[in-house]
Design brief:
coiled coil
């Protein structure tokens, strides 16, 4: 029963539950932000890889000046 435990236990648990819910929301937001940053970094890396391949192809073409 609720009234048989330690005095203030329900209030303490309710407060802790609220705090944990807020923490979960913050971690979810942080995770989303980091996921977006990771996607952007991967996209940037793919672009750089394509650019490097293009430059390497230009350098290795016959008659290209170095």
């Amino acid at each position: 029963m609720l009234g048989t435990g330690e005095p203030g236990a329900v209030q303490r648990i309710t407060t802790e539950n609220t705090t944990l819910k807020q923490r979960v929301r913050q971690l979810t937001t942080d995770n989303h932000t980091l996921d977006e940053r990771l996607k952007a970094a991967r996209s940037n890396l793919r672009f750089q890889d394509r650019r490097m391949a293009d430059l390497e192809a230009q350098i290795t073409e016959p008659g290209s000046a170095i």
